[in-house]
TrEMBL record:
The protein's name: Sucrose-phosphatase
Organism: Corchorus olitorius
Family classification: Belongs to the sucrose phosphatase family.
Cofactor: Mg(2+)
Domain Sucrose phosphatase-like per the UniProt entry, residue ranges: 9-260
NCBIfam families reported for this sequence: HAD-SF-IIB, SPP-subfamily, SPP_plant-cyano
């Protein structure tokens, strides 16, 4: 988080299941499109927050299944747990705040009297969240009776119904909206209120996000009935909230464009990204397009033409070296030359390459060290090389692009693979 020294240009606060992540898209195309847009245009000066109903356990599982980026802040368990950074450091202040007028044991005792409530898995029961399944038809009645019971016992709780099946009981001060309000207040106190905030969701537990003042909101196209109904009753004429035409992450990209929040063309939607537009010239964009080219080359989605490799070579210092995870060294020109042998070798296969956590640090007037995780999915197997690239800006303000000066790679622990299967 210290990465961002000024107010974030854009802060995206997004739900995960059926919002950022489309469980009906086995190729994860819209997620990968969002990732490329974020890392190429926003990562360096904006904030990404995931806000999910999942517990830390299930959140980590989802990260293993889907090509998700690493957010700056993670809000889990329906706004009851806030953590910062890759290390997921918990916000202790939030925990203390939630302890007010909350007694988990009383909630457990009272809910056990309702036969309609079926307890969710143990991992989803959290210090400030008790969760059940309940039939759609019974949800309203149960919610009403339950809140009366708990009020009588002196508790101030919030009951949220989501996805037409999940019922969560939280302290009144908790929830995705309250957690966001808490973070916005923190940013304000530091003089770093984000220039724009976009909230994104699809189900009941996201509704609160849309009632935070001064945020833009997108209900993705596939939003649940309960969220659309909440919107119809509470926020109808609000021009800052849209119901997207597109599903999931594609709906988020659509909203970025609709509200004019910044660039909204994902590099994945650009056929010939070697022609890069001046507005996109930044180190993040440079690495995104490089690895995207590599993915398309191996998938055989671009022609095996010498001109492409020549233009790639033209972006490299002739003496530039790649140090592989094993310590083996080759020149970048040699590596690019070697690409000839793997053109189209992943055609028709499950093969994707994406970058995460792109961080560029200037180390001279026109030189940057760009550090990132380079992920490769091949079939069901994932590997990740933590990569550091030194690049030089060509022309004033990199108007003529960048020159790659050297590349260093290390395996991310737990994601090693046979080095020879990949050129980069
Ligand atoms: C996630 C959580 C679950 C919760 C639901 C709705 O699926 O795992 O516990 O009930 O979100 O908030
Ligand atoms: Mg959802």
């Amino acid at each position: 988080m210290d990465r961002i020294t000024k107010a974030a240009r854009l802060m995206i606060v997004s739900d995960l299941d059926h919002t950022m992540v489309d469980h009906h898209d086995p190729e994860d195309m819209s997620l990968l499109r969002f990732n490329a847009l974020w890392e190429s245009n926003y990562r360096h000066d904006s904030l990404l927050i995931f806000s999910t109903g999942r517990s830390p356990t299930l959140y980590k599982e989802l990260r293993k299944e889907k090509p998700m980026l690493t957010p700056d802040i993670t809000i889990m368990s329906v706004g009851t747990e806030i953590t910062y950074g890759d290390a997921m450091v918990p916000d202790e202040g939030w925990v203390e705040f939630l302890n007010q007028k909350w007694d988990r044991n009383i909630v457990a005792e009272e809910t056990s009297k309702f036969s309609e409530l079926k307890l969710q898995a143990e991992t989803e029961q959290r210090p400030h969240k008790v969760s059940f399944y309940v039939d759609k038809a019974k949800a309203q009645t149960v919610t009403k009776q339950l809140s009366e019971c708990l009020e009588k016992r002196g508790l101030d709780v919030k009951i949220i119904y989501s996805g037409g099946m999940d019922l969560d009981i939280l302290p009144q001060g908790a929830g995705k909206g309250q957690a966001l309000a808490y973070l916005l207040k923190k940013f304000k106190d530091e003089g770093k209120t984000p220039v724009n905030t976009l909230v994104c969701g699809d189900s009941g537990n996201d509704a609160e996000l849309f009632s935070i003042p001064e945020v833009y909101g997108v209900m993705v196209n596939n939003a649940q009935e309960e969220l659309l109904q909440w919107h119809a009753e509470n926020a109808k004429g609000n021009p800052n909230i849209i119901h997207a035409k597109e599903r999931c992450a594609a709906g988020i990209i659509e909203a970025v464009g609709h509200f004019n929040l910044g660039p909204n063309t994902s590099p994945r939607d650009v056929a010939d990204f070697m022609e890069c537009k001046a507005e996109n010239v930044n180190p993040g964009h440079e690495v995104v397009k490089f690895y995207l080219f590599y993915e398309r080359w191996r998938r055989g989605e671009i022609d095996n033409c010498e001109a492409y490799l020549a233009s790639l070579k033209a972006c490299c210092d002739p003496s530039a070296v790649v140090v592989f995870p094993s310590g083996v060294e080759k020149t970048l020109h040699e590596c690019i030359h070697a690409m000839k042998t793997c053109h189209g070798d992943q055609k028709g296969k499950k093969f994707r390459v994406w970058v995460d956590r792109v961080l560029s640090t200037p180390i001279g007037s026109s030189t940057y060290l760009v550090k990132f995780d380079k992920w490769e999915l091949s079939g069901e197997e994932r590997s990740c090389r933590v990569t550091t690239v030194k690049i030089d800006a060509k022309g004033s303000n990199a108007t003529d692009g960048f020159t790659w000066v050297n590349v260093q790679q290390k395996w991310l622990e737990g994601f090693e693979k046979d080095e020879s299967t990949s050129v980069f």
